[in-house]
Amino acid sequence: MKEQLWNPWHGCHKISEGCRHCYVYRSDARYGRRPDVVERTGEFDLPVRKDRFGEWKIAPGTLVYTCFTSDFFVKEADAWRPQTWEMIRRRSDLDFLFITKRIHRFYECIPPDWGDGYKNVKICCTVENPDRAAFRLPIFTQAPIRRRGIVCEPLLGPVDLSRFLGPGIEDVMAGGESGPEARLCDYSWILDLRRQCVEAGVRFWFKQTGTRFLKDGRLYRVPRRLQHSQARKAGINYDP
C-alpha cells in the first residue's frame, strides 16, 4: 500500500507525560518555530488536489498518515476540522489514520454523519503509562469507532491493556522514547504487552527501541538510525 503524510495543521500543546520530550517540539526548536502555536498548513487541502491531468495527487488506495505534527482533536483546530471531514468523506478511496492523546474530545470533534465511524478512518489512542491508560481507554473503547488501535509510545512503564483488548481493537503498537533526554524503555514492558496481545488475539507491533533501552539488566543507548531496525531484529511482532 502506498503511504502519504498529511498535516492539515501544525502545532500542539503538551498535555501528559508522553508529551514531555515531543519530537515536534525538538524539530521546531531547530528552526526557531513555536510548536505551541496551532496553524493551518499550506497542504491543508492536499487530499483533494489534482494534477494538471485532472488526476488526484494522492492516488486511490493510499494510506494517509494524518496530523502527525499536531493532534487531530486539538481544540484550536475546531473551526477547520469540518472541512477536513468533508475531504475525508470525499476521498473514500483513501485510508486515513491519526493518533490522538485527546480522545476525551471525541464527541466534540466528530461530524454529524459519523454513526459508528467512517470505513476509511482509523483512530489510534496513545497510552504511555497506567494513568493515561486508565483515563483514555474506557472512553476510547466505548466510543463509536469502526477501526481503532492502541499506541504505547513512548512507553514509560508497564501497562495492563488486557481488559481493553478484544475484537474492537485492530492492533497495538509499542516503542520507546527517542531524543537526547529520552526516558528508559524496559524490554520486559514490551514483552508483557506482546503477551497480552497474543492472549487476546490482537496484532502487536514493536516499532522501535527508543534511545535508552533496558534488556536483561543491561542498558543500551541506541542511535536513532538503529532504533527501528533493532526492534525488527527482536522478531516479536505478532499477527494472528
Question: What topology does this entry show?
Answer:
Elements: E1 3-6, E2 9-10, H1 23-30, E3 39-40, E4 63-66, H2 81-90, E5 95-100, H3 106-109, E6 121-126, H4 130-142, E7 147-152, E8 171-175, E9 185-186, H5 187-200, E10 203-208, E11 212-215, E12 218-221, H6 227-234
Parallel strand pairs: 1-4, 4-5, 5-6, 6-7, 7-8, 8-10, 9-11
Antiparallel strand pairs: 2-3, 11-12
Keywords:
single chain; 240 residues; alpha/beta; seven-stranded parallel β-sheet; three-stranded mixed β-sheet; 6 helices; 24% helix
Structure notes:
The protein is of the alpha/beta class and 240 residues long. Helices cover 24% and strands 21% of the residues. It is built from 6 helices and 12 strands. Strands 1-4-5-6-7-8-10 form a 7-stranded parallel beta sheet. The longest helix is centred in the C-terminal third of the chain and has 14 residues, at 187-200. The protein is globular, with a radius of gyration of 18 Å. The relative contact order is 0.11.
Classify the beta-strand content into a percent band: 15-25%
Number of helices: 6
- The low-pLDDT segments are none
Find the count of extended strands (DSSP E, 2+ residues).
Answer: 12
What order do the SSEs take from the amino end to the carboxyl end, as H and E? Answer: EEHEEHEHEHEEEHEEEH
Class derived from helix and strand content: alpha/beta
Mean pLDDT: 97
Q: Kindly, what is the distance between the CA atoms of the first and last residues, rounded to a whole number of angstroms?
A: 20 Å
Largest sheet: 7 strands, parallel
